[in-house]
User: Which sequence fits this backbone?
């Protein structure tokens, strides 16, 4: 099925780059709202190059369906995407839905019954924690955490998946986003984000993972941790890394990749960060990914919300080149994931 | 015994009636010290041995370092292209240079070198180019701000409507906040309804009571004062929507040094029409001015006395005061305080830049009637060096980088200045129209130094007398016990 992806922005970049992991859907075009400043920009993945468009109605004509995705940009007004969904439905287009908007979901369930939903946010919602026992997870676990939002965590998770798939490993994966069903793996359980006793959440996640381990019999588990692993400062506290702490209590992480914002730090910063992670969570950090995003202290100075600015990829790479450590990386292409060879030989059973 | 021969400590010392202080530049910290330590540091005789325990302690705790910035480079410089490509969101359109008033202190009045009233208006095509330019450079922006500026922008109300229609189409999917700076004499029922419908934030120029306001703000045609007309129109807005009035209308008073400050302060605080903090005070701009004005002693006395009463009010020593007109300024002081209280630096970086310049085009993008772009509405449209491009040809990177790294013109002096981190000198203060003017910068330096020292003194005195911004914040959140 040839689909248009809407509304495109940096949030859906991983989907476009790893589109070959999506079964049955071929992304034909990328469309953004006109006001997002993306008209005419080019996104290239392994098999094709997309020129971003802003004329929704015209692009719709050329597609069989629309894949509606979440966006990093705030969209205005609130019912903006709903109106696009309604229009697509009125044109008889098949709707694939990977967003989290309750109003839209409710409308689709009522009015477009053949919609395919990828947002598996209900996963694990009704689990009942009836035992305090923690199980031993025997399969090696690769964890991916970040300094906060917009550090490419999901992009890295897809890169790892793609690499391990190609090497022939059987992977069980829990991703940090809600629409991992699009890539045929599990989303981070909603239970962990709802209001429950914190201890129950830890036990629940352990049990959930054990069940997946027994059921799917993977060679390796890849676990993406949503949000940030620690507070950035007094103003931007990332939920103080509470979620990451619960994950660390529930799951023994064997190999941990941390994605960070870009900054021209001295190399010692990464050693200190690694120490903080070890003493807080109990596992060593094996690799750092430096994202092409930097905290925008200009716009963020008077604002309580974190703001970001993109950084030129070459500038990021040239900064990384100055470091002596070989585990500070900028993971962009599938070839960049060769560093995983080390753990494949050291920690995982042969594929 | 120690001495500080290793290097002169990079500090600034100052006194208040009840204390001796040093501002330690490297750690960005204000420290209360003993009289002996103060006097030792005041002498600057660092070659001689010092047996003061306090000085030893300060050194051991990481203070009194002699480090200075070694290379002037704005830390934004490596990222400026990304900012200019993706973060532009705050557009101000000079839709006309014409005005129906002739205020003597206005930038267009003829009292300044940069502007004069003319019949020049922005063509719709220029406005659309400006809006398109912003949209195509806004990938990482969150929302748009579009302001209409003049002259008097409401002289071009049909053009404002055209621009809003166009922007609403072109900025599909993003929120736009519109704003307008006006003399409030041209409001009609239709205009008020339109502004309310589109949630315009409006800044109205109102200098105080009729006797003060009408002194300068006169109609061009009749030379009569505009106060009565402004008040009638403001009341029309209130009648249409009191909620809109309270949320979206603010007043700007330009302080006239020849009038009574107490009258102005009393007007804004006591006039029933105003809701708390609806006003802001500004001084007559001295940038590009032909002749500067002296300030009378009476004015200074009234100003300082009102401010003094306001501080007593903040310290809960007075119940009510007309000094609440200083609420805006106090917020500025609180932000200044936060910069010390959150200080975490151990020393100055080797490569840095003083705090003066904004990121041109990002904090604001002012487009004049001809489509030339400037970092804000307060710089001269005649300036060659303050122009950051045009809506037709795009950014002028050379000027932008020069503006961003303004310190390069005076780097030796700046890097040795104790107020380095609090400097406010930007292109508007340094603009010699064809080049960066060292004499303009020098003039502004003394103003900056006085302001920063004055803020530091206010800060420590308020602290000495028990003011605590954290407590005020917590009281606002949870109420006073």
Assistant:
């Amino acid at each position: 099925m040839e689909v248009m992806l809407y509304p495109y922005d940096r949030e859906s970049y991983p989907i476009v780059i790893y589109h070959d992991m999506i079964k049955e859907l071929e992304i034909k075009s990328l469309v953004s709202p006109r006001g997002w400043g993306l008209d005419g920009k080019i996104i290239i993945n392994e098999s094709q190059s997309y020129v971003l468009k802003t004329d929704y109605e015209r692009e719709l004509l050329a597609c069989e369906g629309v894949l509606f995705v979440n966006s990093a940009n705030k969209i205005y007004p609130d019912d903006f995407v709903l109106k696009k969904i309604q229009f697509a439905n009125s044109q008889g287009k098949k709707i694939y839905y990977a967003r989290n908007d309750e109003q839209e979901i409710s409308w689709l369930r009522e009015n477009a019954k053949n919609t395919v939903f990828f947002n598996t946010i209900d996963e694990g919602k009704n689990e009942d924690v009836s035992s305090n026992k923690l199980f031993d997870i025997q399969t090696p676990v690769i964890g991916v955490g970040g300094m906060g939002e917009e550090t490419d965590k999901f992009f890295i998770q897809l890169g790892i998946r793609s690499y391990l798939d190609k090497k022939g490993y059987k992977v069980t994966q829990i991703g940090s986003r809600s629409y991992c069903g699009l890539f045929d793996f599990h989303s981070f359980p909603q239970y962990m984000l709802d209001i429950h006793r914190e201890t129950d959440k830890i036990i629940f996640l352990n049990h959930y993972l054990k069940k997946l381990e027994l059921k799917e019999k993977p060679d390796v588990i890849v676990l993406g941790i949503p949000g940030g692993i620690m507070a950035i400062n007094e103003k931007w506290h990332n939920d103080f890394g509470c979620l990451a702490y619960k994950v660390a209590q529930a799951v023994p992480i064997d190999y941990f990749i941390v994605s960070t914002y870009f900054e021209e730090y001295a190399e010692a910063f990464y050693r200190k960060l690694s120490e903080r992670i070890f003493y807080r969570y109990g596992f060593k950090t094996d690799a750092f990914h430096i994202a092409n995003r930097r905290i925008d202290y200009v716009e963020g100075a008077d604002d309580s919300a974190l703001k970001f600015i993109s950084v030129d990829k070459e500038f990021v790479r040239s900064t990384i080149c100055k470091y002596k450590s070989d585990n500070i990386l900028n993971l962009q292409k599938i070839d960049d994931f060769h560093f995983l060879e080390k753990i494949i030989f050291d920690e995982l059973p042969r594929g | 015994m120690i001495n500080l021969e290793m290097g002169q400590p990079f500090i600034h010392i100052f006194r208040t009636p009840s204390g001796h202080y040093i501002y330690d530049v490297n750690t960005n910290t204000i420290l209360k010290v003993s009289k002996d330590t103060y006097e030792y540091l005041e002498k600057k005789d660092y070659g001689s041995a010092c047996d003061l325990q306090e000085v030893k302690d300060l050194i051991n705790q990481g203070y009194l370092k002699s480090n200075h910035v070694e290379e002037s480079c704005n830390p934004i410089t490596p990222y400026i292209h990304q900012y200019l490509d993706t973060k532009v969101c705050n557009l101000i359109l000079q839709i006309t240079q014409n005005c129906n008033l002739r205020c003597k202190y206005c930038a267009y009045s003829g009292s300044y070198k940069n502007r004069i009233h003319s019949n020049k208006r922005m063509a719709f095509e220029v406005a659309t180019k400006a809006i398109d330019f912003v949209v195509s450079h806004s990938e990482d922006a969150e929302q748009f701000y579009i302001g209409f500026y003049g002259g008097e922008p409401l002289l071009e109300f049909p053009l404002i409507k055209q621009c809003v229609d166009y922007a609403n189409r072109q900025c599909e999917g993003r929120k736009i906040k519109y704003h307008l700076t006006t003399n409030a004499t041209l409001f009609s029922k239709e205009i008020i309804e339109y502004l309310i419908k589109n949630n315009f934030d409006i800044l109205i120029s109102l200098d105080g009571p009729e006797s003060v306001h009408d002194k300068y703000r006169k109609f061009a045609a009749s030379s009569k004062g505009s106060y009565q007309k402004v008040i009638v129109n403001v009341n029309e807005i209130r009648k249409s929507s009191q909620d809109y009035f309270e949320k979206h209308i603010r007043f700007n008073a330009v302080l006239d040094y020849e009038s009574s400050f107490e009258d102005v302060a009393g007007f804004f605080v006591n006039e029933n029409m105003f809701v708390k903090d609806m006003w802001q005070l500004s001084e007559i701009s001295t940038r590009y001015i032909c002749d500067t004005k002296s300030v009378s002693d009476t004015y200074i006395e009234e100003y300082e006395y009102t401010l003094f009463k306001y501080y007593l009010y903040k310290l809960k020593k007075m119940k009510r005061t007309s000094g609440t007109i200083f609420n805006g300024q106090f917020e500025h002081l609180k932000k200044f305080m936060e910069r010390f209280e959150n200080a975490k630096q151990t020393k100055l970086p080797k490569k840095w830049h003083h705090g003066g310049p904004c990121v041109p085009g990002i904090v604001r993008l002012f487009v004049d009637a001809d489509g030339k772009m400037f970092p804000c509405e307060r710089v001269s449209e005649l300036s060659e060096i303050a122009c950051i491009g045009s809506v037709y040809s795009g950014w002028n990177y050379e000027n932008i980088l020069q503006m961003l790294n303004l310190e390069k013109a005076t780097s030796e002096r700046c890097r040795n200045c104790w107020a380095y981190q609090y400097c406010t000198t930007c292109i508007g203060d340094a603009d010699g129209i064809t080049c960066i003017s060292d004499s303009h910068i020098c003039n502004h330096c003394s103003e900056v130094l006085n302001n920063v020292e004055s803020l530091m003194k206010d800060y420590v005195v308020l602290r000495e007398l028990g003011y605590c911004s954290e407590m005020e914040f917590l009281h606002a959140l949870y109420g006073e016990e």
User: Anything to note?
Assistant: The interface with chain B takes residues 7, 9, 32-39, 41, 54, 73-76, 80, 234, 264, 294, 296, 298-299, 307-312, 315 of chain A (CB under 8 Å).
